[in-house]
Amino acid sequence: MATIQIPEAEAARNFAAVMTHIRAGSEVIIEADEKAVAVMRPAERQPGLLLSEIVARAEARGSTVTLDEGFSRDLEDAINSHPEPLTPPEWD
C-alpha cells in the first residue's frame, strides 16, 4: 500500500483528491506542522456470516430461539418490503 503525506490545508482544499488516492488503495497521512494528525486508508470489507454460523453462535450463548417453518417466509417478506438495491452508499 502506497503512503501519501499531505498538509491539512491541502487535504481540506481538495478532499476529492484525497478520496481518489484512498479509493486507489493508498494510505493518506494528513499532517499539520509536519506532524501526523490523521491517517486515512481504504476500509477493510468484512464478509458476512453464514446463517449456520449465526445459529452456532446463538447456541453457544445459550439461546433457546428456534427457526421455525415461518422463518423463511418472514425473511422473504422482509426482503420484498425493500425492493431497492441492497448496496451501501459509497461513503458507507
Give a brief description:
This protein has 92 residues and is α+β, with helices and mostly antiparallel strands. 38% of the residues lie in helices and 18% in strands.
What can you tell me about this protein's structure?
With 92 residues, this protein is α+β, with helices and mostly antiparallel strands. It has two domains: 3-40, YefM-like fold; 51-80, no CATH class. The chain has helices at residues 8-13, 15-23, 51-60, 71-80; strands at residues 3-7, 27-32, 35-40. Strands 1-2-3 form a three-stranded mixed sheet. The model has no long low-confidence stretch (mean pLDDT 85).
Keywords:
single chain; 92 residues; alpha+beta; YefM-like fold; 2 domains; three-stranded mixed β-sheet; 4 helices; 3 strands; 38% helix
Strand content: 15-25%
Mean pLDDT: 85
Low-confidence stretches: none
The coarse overall form would be elongated
Q: Count the domains.
A: 2
Helical amount: 25-40%
Order of helices and strands: EHHEEHH
**Number of distinct helices:** 4
CATH-defined architecture of the largest domain: 3-Layer(aba) Sandwich
Number of strands: 3
Task: Describe the SSE topology.
Layout lengths: L2 E5 H6 L1 H9 L3 E6 L2 E6 L10 H10 L10 H10 L12
Parallel strand pairs: 1-2
Antiparallel strand pairs: 2-3
